[in-house]
Write a structure and sequence with these properties.
Low-confidence stretches: none
Number of strands: 10
Membrane topology: Peripheral membrane protein
Radius of gyration: 19 Å
Number of helices: 11
Shape: globular
Keywords: ATP-binding, Cell membrane, Membrane, Nucleotide-binding, Transport
Number of domains: 1
Organism: Shouchella clausii (strain KSM-K16) (Alkalihalobacillus clausii)
Order of helices and strands: EEEHEEHEHHHHHEHEHEEHH
InterPro entries: AAA+_ATPase (IPR003593), ABC_Ni/Peptide_Import (IPR050388), ABC_transporter-like_ATP-bd (IPR003439), ABC_transporter-like_CS (IPR017871), Oligopep_ABC_C (IPR013563), P-loop_NTPase (IPR027417)
CATH class: Alpha Beta
Family: Belongs to the ABC transporter superfamily.
């Protein structure tokens, strides 16, 4: 791990217009992510987790006002032009969205959707090089029969397979920063474990810094190095994954831990 953070967010405020009022959904948020580190942001629905990720990616809609600082490798994202941020998105930083069926185009084959990212950021590549890379990416995310899968449409794949395709798209250009917004929420337990194992493997192989957003502390225990507990737009606790479960400090964190399902062997 290097001495300089890959991502540094400082005093981030994201405000949305609501009628004549302006409501801060993220309010004074500060955290950092080092290369090769997996940082989990955990909190209940409405705590501001997804707004944080969209702020970093520059994907919030126009009725949002953002202030503070978001530094990626020392570059201030909030003062970058839209063109400069588009050059970074997909190449240097990528995002895996919660529901692949709403993110994948139902009218396009899988190979077309993965190839699109490669074409945008590798304009000198030939069609054959892109086609080969598409198959390589599907193999990387453990999709069986990648040549056949590449020709299918999203509705012809299972939920777990679609999520693997989303991961393939996100890692197509080997980004240094990957933001995963609840990537396992809609999956069964077995598929969820497979996706988490895949993300950990990619993290180790490529040294990718990952921001993993979830409301599920059992997932946090499985994947994170460090954990940020978020409530009402603020970080209320930050700890290593071991310290968070061994000696939580904030009452809200204690409440989340008590809400985790347990294996009750009493009858």
């Amino acid at each position: 791990m290097t001495n300089s953070p890959l991502l540094r967010v400082k005093d981030l405020v994201a405000t949305f217009a609501s009628g004549s009022d302006f409501k801060p959904v993220v309010n004074g948020l500060s955290f950092h992510v080092y290369p090769g580190e997996i940082v989990a942001i955990v909190g209940e629905s409405g705590s501001g987790k997804s707004v944080t990720s969209l702020s970093i990616m520059g994907l919030l809609n126009r009725n949002a006002t953002i202030s503070g600082s978001i530094l990626y490798e020392g570059q201030e994202l909030l003062t970058m032009s839209a063109t400069e941020r588009r050059r970074l998105r997909g190449k240097e930083m990528s995002m895996i969205f919660q529901e692949p069926m709403s993110s994948l185009n139902p009218m396009l084959r899988i190979q077309t959707q993965i190839a699109e990212v490669l074409k945008i950021h590798n304009r000198s590549w030939s069609k054959s090089a892109i086609a080969k890379k598409v198959i390589d990416l599907l193999e990387q995310v453990d999709i069986p029969n990648p040549e056949e899968t590449a020709k299918r449409f999203p509705h012809q794949l299972s939920g777990g397979m679609r999520q693997r395709v989303m991961i393939a798209i996100a890692i197509a250009c080997q980004p240094k920063l990957l933001i995963a917004d609840e990537p396992t929420t809609a999956l069964d337990v077995t598929t969820q474990a497979q996706i988490l194992a895949l993300m950990k493997r990619l993290n180790k192989q490529n040294g990718t810094g990952i921001v993993f957003i979830t409301h599920d502390l059992s997932v946090v225990a499985d994947i994170a190095d460090r954990v940020l507990v978020m409530r009402t737009g603020k970080i209320v606790e930050e700890a290593t994954v071991f310290d968070l479960f061994d000696k939580p400090q904030h009452p809200y964190t204690l409440g989340l831990l008590k809400a985790m399902p347990t294996l009750d062997t009493s009858f």
